[in-house]
Amino acid sequence: MFPIIPANSAAVSGNQEGIIAYGRTTGDSNSSISNLVTNAGVVGTDVTGVGTARTEVAGCEYGDDKGIFGYGGPSSYYSCTNLVTNAGVVGTDVTGVGTARSGIGACAYGDDKGIFGFGNDGYYCGMTNLVTNAGVVGTDVAAVGTARYAVAACEYGEDKGIFGYGGAAPGPVVSTTNLVSNTGVVATDTAGVGTAMFYLSACSYGGDKGIFGFGSAGGVTGITNLVSNAGVVASDTAAVGTARQWPGATQYGGDKGIFAYGWASSYLTTTNLVSNEGVVASDGTAAGTAKAYSGACSFN
Q1: Percentages of the chain per state (helix, strand, coil), in multiples of 5
Q2: Secondary structure of 145-209 in the HEC alphabet?
Q3: How many CA atoms lie within 13 A of 10 on its CB side?
Q4: Domain 17-299 carries which CATH code?
Q5: Domains of the chain by residue range
């Protein structure tokens, strides 16, 4: 069994490829287009969309080598999910389970399972939904911690996860985090570290660590915050690359990560690779349609 690593969510450690899908494109059109990420961190051309076009979705891994996208909005709230095979093929809609909402986070836990959490269903939410190692989504688990939306999540410590940041009712942006155990239990709030922001993304790197990055904090930002293999969030790392909000983020190449696409006054195709030591590289360019508010995960 491979160890764990994330994406926006994301990842079972050792997964070689990634996928970024759904989101909003130029003209503020919802999309179901996907783009594969190679084991060298190259983002491929558009793959024809499958399933309901929507935005503010989340993605995570399950079953060691597969992925799942779920939920979304924004004009209507969705709970449908779409499974991703270990070859990166996105499946048709699976009937939703749990509260329909957008602006959620997702990550893997326990080596082969996943979790969706938080979001917005007209009110800010704190509930979570577990994903089995067969990709089956469970009913709502009662909220723990501050209800909020536009959060990010990633794995750390090979088999645990973390939700972080977001917009909380009645309006403040926070840097609060909530750890997820290797049995999928969400912990109460941990005091925030770094700049409070939302519309950010997160992925794993280095086999057992994570990184939060980009987002909005009174304006778009490129700040990142590393997560140790014990789930401790570090203070701000100065921005590298184009400041923007809600890129997709996923593991690739077994122990590296990538932030791709996003929005900053326009939709972007910008990419920033993350080394296996958590160092963010300067801007690159993705193939495919410029977009933001996408989900992402890895597969193998």
Answers
A1: 0, 50, 50
A2: CCCEECCEEEEECCCEEEEEEEEECCCCEEEEEEEECCCCCECCCECCCCCCCECCEEEEECCCE
A3: 42
A4: 2.120.10.80
A5: 17-299
Q: Which two tokens stand for residue 170?
A: 């009645």
Per-residue pLDDT of the chain (300 residues; tens, 9 = 90+): 434 333 344 444 579 999 999 999 999 999 999 999 999 999 999 999 999 999 999 999 999 999 999 999 988 999 999 999 999 999 999 999 999 999 999 999 999 999 999 999 999 999 999 999 999 999 999 999 999 999 999 999 999 999 999 999 888 999 999 999 999 999 999 999 999 999 999 999 999 999 999 999 989 999 999 999 999 999 999 999 999 999 999 999 999 999 999 999 999 999 999 999 999 999 999 999 999 999 999 999
Tell me which residue has tokens 């942006």. Answer: 173
